[in-house]
C-alpha cells in the first residue's frame, strides 16, 4: 500500500512561501510573497491531520471543504482541488490573499493547538486557484436558462460580485450599478497591491462581464436614478454598497490640512498605481513622500495605510493605537510585516489634538491604559493621567473604521428601514429590506466586516432572491393558463 501523503505535521515543519526582503518589497506595490512551487504546496498540504471534525472549515464563513482540497493537493490532483475549492467560493484566490487566516481557518487548525504550527491553508488556497488560472482550468460562468427576469445590484464589491455570479447562474439578467469607474469596490480601491494585485481582481470582473453581466460604472443611485426608479426597472434589487463613511475623530485641529481619511488616501494610491491622473497625489495632499506620517487606528485599514506610506517614501511612519498589541483588531501578521518594513507602533496612545493652523505639524496624544471590560468583553481604554506624547506629523491618516452612509436619504427612499447603527434592516430569514423586492447583503447589513463574510452574504442572498423571484414568476404563468382555459 502506498504511503499516505497526509498527517506529515510531526516530521514536516510549517513553511509559508518566502517573503521578499523587507527593504526590497518596501520599494514597490507587488505582493510580498510569491506563490508556492508545486512540490512545496503539495508538501505543506500533506501536513493536514484530516480531522474528523475540521475546525478550519467550521470557522470559515464559507465553510470551504478545506481538508478535502488539501488532500487532493497533496496527492497532486490540483485540478480537482481547484474544482472543490471553487464550489464554495467565487473568489478563492482573493480570500487566500486577504483573509485573516490567523483568526479564522489557520487560527483554529488542530495541529496549531498541538504546537506543530497550523497548515498554511491560505497560501495553499491561493496556489490552487492561481494555478487554475495559469493552466486554463477556470471555466466561464455557467449561465442558467433564461428566466425572463432581471436583477439590479447596487455595489460592485465582493458581496455584489458574488451575488451577481450566482444569480447569473440561476438564469437571471443581471445589472450591476457602481459609483466607481472600475468594479471591485474595496478590493480594487481600498486594498493595496502588496496584499492584492489588481489584475487578480480585474480577471474576476472580466469573467463576469463575459457571462453577460452588465456593469453600469460611474453610476450613483440618487443622482442617476433613485432606488424606486431602479426597482421599476428590475424584478428585484440587491443593495450591496458596503460602508464607506469614515468614523470621525473629535479633537482640536482635526480639520487642518494634512489630516485625511484612510479611504481617500488608499484610493489615491491605488489609482496612481493603475496609471490614473491623481491631482491630490501629485500635489502632495495624499502622498507620503518625505513626510512624517502618523496613522490613527489599529485595524487592517490602518495596516494598509502605514505600509503604503512606507512604499511612498515617507520620512517616518508611526501608528497610534489606543489599546495594546494583544487587543488590536488587525491581523498580527500585518503588524509583523509593517514592523519589518520600518513602521513604529505607539501602543496605548490616542490623539488629543492636532497642532498647526493651516497645515498639520504635529500630534499631541494621551497615554492610555486598559481598564475594566466594556460591553463587548474587551478591556476599555482609559486615559492614563501620568502620560502625554507629542510627535511631528506632516500627514495624519484617520483609520478608525467605517460607518454606513445615510442610504434612505442618499437613494431617495425614505421608506428604506435602518437600524440604530445606520445599517440596513433586513428580515433574518429572507434578507429582504423593508421595501418589497429589495434585498441587502454584506457590510451594509452587518457593519464593517471581512471580505469573506461579504462573499458568504452574496451567496446566501442570491439563493433568497432566487426563491422570491421564482414565486413571483409563477403568478403570471398561472394567470395565463387560466385565461387560455377560459
TrEMBL record:
Q: Which domain of life is it from?
A: Bacteria
Q: What are the FAD/NAD(P)-binding domain coordinates in residue numbering?
A: 151-458
Name of the molecule in the record: Glutamate synthase (NADPH/NADH) small chain
Keyword Lipid metabolism among record annotations:
no
Q: Which NCBIfam families match?
A: gltD_gamma_fam
Q: Which UniProt keywords apply?
A: 4Fe-4S, Iron, Iron-sulfur, Metal-binding, Oxidoreductase
* Broad class of enzyme this protein falls into: oxidoreductase
**In Gene Ontology terms, what is one molecular function of this protein?**
4 iron, 4 sulfur cluster binding
Q: Where is the Dihydroprymidine dehydrogenase domain?
A: 25-136
Query: What EC number(s) are associated with this protein in UniProt?
Result: 1.4.1.13, 1.4.1.14
Annotated transmembrane regions: none
